[in-house]
């Protein structure tokens, strides 16, 4: 059978995740683009987020609310849209329960002629914090940790199982790339109002390092990319003006763009 790589990318409706699916799909990779709701995946468009380079290239979007961790991990049925050229989008459906859950496409897209395998997971979904730690209520704390850390951990665990299963017929090494933040690194500037956010990203960084060691025998690359400030992003625009100012000030004039981050992801993916 012919082999086709699939990338699962979270946070793909907007910002950095959108730039990542744009890049991957423009290079011929089939993408599963995740966002939090039916409404947000209805904005994921062919020709904008997703591009098609060859006949066997498929795309799907899925709506999963990661703030609902761990409940979402037990749900096998997710609302999604399948995009297939030349008519798109073709199917809008509530996927039938299968042991593959959100990785159902690896089975349902595959045929005796074409085999789709999981080549890449990019955990890019993230939410920020709107107030100082002392003013943040426990529900908001749980949301930040569930989206920025716990859901990434669950997705890594799920992806690893499929990557290991696909090892039998795929020679290329699969990759997991987690999107952290400069605020979650040791050299980070300390910005008041980002305590929980920075903690979730620091934890994601450390988790990725230890996970890499835990699965070192499996030839799956685990990386974290820690972007600096992306001024054009919704995430930054939604922050309190004083925090925006502080971030700009402490991170210096050096800022980055969603396209630059997407090309870093592409380089890591092709290097694996
Ligand atoms: P945006 O705010 O532009 O987009 C966030 C993405 O995450 C959207 O696709 C959104 O989906 C998804 N998301 C948010 N909440 C949930 C949820 N509950 N369940 C599922 N998906 C969810 O963010 P950016 O593109 O700016 O950031 C992307 C990543 O990069 C984040 O992890 C962020 O922490 C990190 N980062 C960003 C920086 C910046 O300056 N912007 C700097 C450093 C790191 P929906 O459309 O459904 O809401």
What does it look like?
The chain has 272 residues and is α/β, with parallel strands linked by helices. The chain is built from nine helices and eight strands. It has one domain: Rossmann fold (3-Layer(aba) Sandwich), CATH 3.40.50. Helices cover 38% and strands 18% of the residues. The chain has an eight-stranded mixed sheet with strand order 5-4-3-2-1-6-7-8, with helices on both faces. Strand 2 (30-35), helix 2 (38-42) and strand 3 (59-63) form a beta-alpha-beta unit. Helix 1 (15-26) packs across helix 9 and helix 5 runs parallel beside helix 6. 39% of the residues are buried. It binds NADPH dihydro-nicotinamide-adenine-dinucleotide phosphate (NDP). NADPH dihydro-nicotinamide-adenine-dinucleotide phosphate binds next to helix 1 and helix 7. Residues 11-17, 35-37, 40, 65-67, 124-127, 147, 179, 181, 227, 229-230, 233-236 line the site of NADPH dihydro-nicotinamide-adenine-dinucleotide phosphate.
